[in-house]
Design a protein that fits this description.
alpha/beta, single chain, about 25% strand, five-stranded antiparallel β-sheet
């Protein structure tokens, strides 16, 4: 908008008519004071200012306008009927004007000047608007960049805190960031870990996996730098998309060595269990066939009784195997039940000794210390533990057939210790004997068993707030014991 300032209405009228005719928006003021008031309120592209006005002349108005931060850049064209001497023109420019036009006004020249200054105003305004937009864009980009840096920092901190090996890669699969665990297996941050020689190189498998641009996973064995040992890992990779465009990959390598070992143990256990179950079944079948033949031939009761007893032993062995299998299944599902009552611990141990002694008459079982105490628990389950200890003592003492059962009472606890003079256990294997499916290699080649009996024992005793342990020396025998809290002394 153009502001016309003149104390003569006829001058204002003629200029308004000229400018409006050519499409310029126009405002007017009849005095310097009115002009200053309007400049403070409105925004103008150009001011056409008469020099000769009462109270405040045009030069004074221009100087006042130049003091306003809002209006100091508005171009001013002075109109004057006085002499065009140099001093007046100079004063006009020094007061803030950009041009000086004398009266009578040449309308074409004035119109040309107005168009020029208006165009400059519009260009300046466009430039200012563009600068404002650019400034806002720069600020937005700065904030976005800062936010992105924070996000990247937080994301990398998250990857660093993971227990797995974690890394990110570019769209083409090139390594971008790796967490600290990476260097436990890789030579540098830009190299993939070395995997097992029997496998395709890990980097090649990785590059092949990203070709479909979809999540993928595979198992691999990679070598630990410090030990040189190959461990099983599961690699899982996920593509990251932005605006439907794949920008990077995020992947983890999770150590599954223990899981693979458990799988191997379970496979071995199934194989052993199948064999162990088949052996007594085959024996039972054979004894029954012999009994049928004896009955048919009427060979005599003594022979029949012998084979019946042997068949019963095999049935009892089969029953124990099935019981162990059922117990471990219940333990794994959290459904092993206890029917707890108060019972005499000493009597329970005596009963277990009698059972083993009757079925193993060539062994000598000695009991030390008749300690009469009551225990609150599942009597049949705790007896199962004592029977297991005694059965193992018999099994692993094929030469020296002396077994000792000792009861100890101390600090509100009762301890039951079963000692033999058998083959013993190597020191490096002692910590593993109560693990599920564990069987010492040396013993597994000579003795039958599923490798779950002691694991079941430890679960039963822990279910009664006690603990199991073993003391052993290879070639000199073993002592298995458990400790339980005592309810009260008798």
């Amino acid at each position: 908008m153009v502001l016309i300032v003149d104390d003569k209405p006829e001058n204002i009228y003629s200029l308004e008519k000229l400018l409006k005719l050519h499409g310029f928006p126009v405002d007017s003021a009849a005095s310097g004071e009115e002009a200053l008031a309007k400049v403070l309120k409105n925004s103008y592209a150009l001011i056409i200012l008469d020099v000769q006005m009462p109270v405040m002349d045009g030069f004074e108005v221009a100087e006042a306008i130049s003091g306003y931060s809002k209006a100091r850049d508005i171009p001013i064209i002075f109109l004057s009927a006085i002499s065009t001497e140099k001093k007046y023109i100079t004063k006009g420019y020094s007061s803030g004007g950009v041009d000086y036009v004398t009266k009578p006004v040449d309308q074409e020249i004035l119109l040309l000047k107005v168009k020029t200054f208006y165009k400059l105003y519009e260009q300046k305004k466009d430039l200012h608007d563009m600068q404002t937009i650019l400034k806002a864009e720069i600020e937005y980009r700065k904030k976005a960049e800062a936010a992105l840096k924070n996000t990247v920092s937080e994301f990398r901190s998250t990857l660093e805190s993971l227990p797995q090996i974690a890394f990110t890669a570019t769209q083409k699969g090139n390594l971008e960031f790796v967490n600290r665990h990476w260097l436990e297996y890789a030579a540098s941050e830009k190299e993939f870990p070395v995997n097992h020689p029997s496998e395709k190189p890990l980097e090649a498998r990785w590059k092949a996996g990203i070709q479909n641009c979809k999540p993928f996973d595979f198992e691999t064995r990679i070598k630990q730098k410090d030990t040189g040992v190959f461990r099983f890992f599961l690699l899982k990779a996920t593509p990251v998309y932005e605006a439907n465009e794949l920008t990077k990959w995020v992947a983890t390598l999770t150590d599954i060595e223990e899981r693979k070992q458990d799988e191997r143990k379970k496979d071995e256990f199934i194989s052993i269990a199948s064999h162990e179950l088949k052996t007594p079944l085959t024996s039972i079948k054979a004894y029954i066939q012999l009994l049928e033949r004896i009955i048919h031939e009427n060979s005599g009761k003594d022979v029949m009784q012998k084979y019946i007893e042997r068949a019963q032993k095999q049935i009892e062995k089969l029953n124990m195997l099935v019981t162990d299998l059922l117990d471990i299944s219940k333990i794994e599902s959290g459904k092993l039940e206890y029917h707890k009552t108060t019972f005499n611990f000493n009597e329970m141990v005596n009963h277990a000794i009698d059972i083993i002694q009757q079925t193993n008459k060539d062994y000598h079982i000695t009991k030390l210390n008749e300690v009469n105490v009551e225990v609150y628990g599942d009597e049949s389950r705790i007896e199962q533990v004592v029977l297991n200890y005694l059965t193992n003592a018999v099994k692993y003492s094929p030469v020296n057939k002396n077994i000792t059962v000792e009861l100890r009472q101390e600090s509100g606890n009762i301890q039951c210790r079963v000692s033999d003079s058998g083959i013993g256990i190597p020191s490096d294997k002692l910590k593993k004997v109560f693990e599920k499916y564990y069987r010492a290699e040396e013993a597994s080649n000579r003795f039958q068993g599923l490798g779950i009996g002691l694991y079941i024992c430890s679960e039963i005793i822990e279910g009664h707030k006690g603990f199991c342990a073993v003391e052993s020396e290879e070639g000199k025998g073993s002592t298995f014991y458990f400790t339980l809290p005592v309810k009260n002394e008798l």
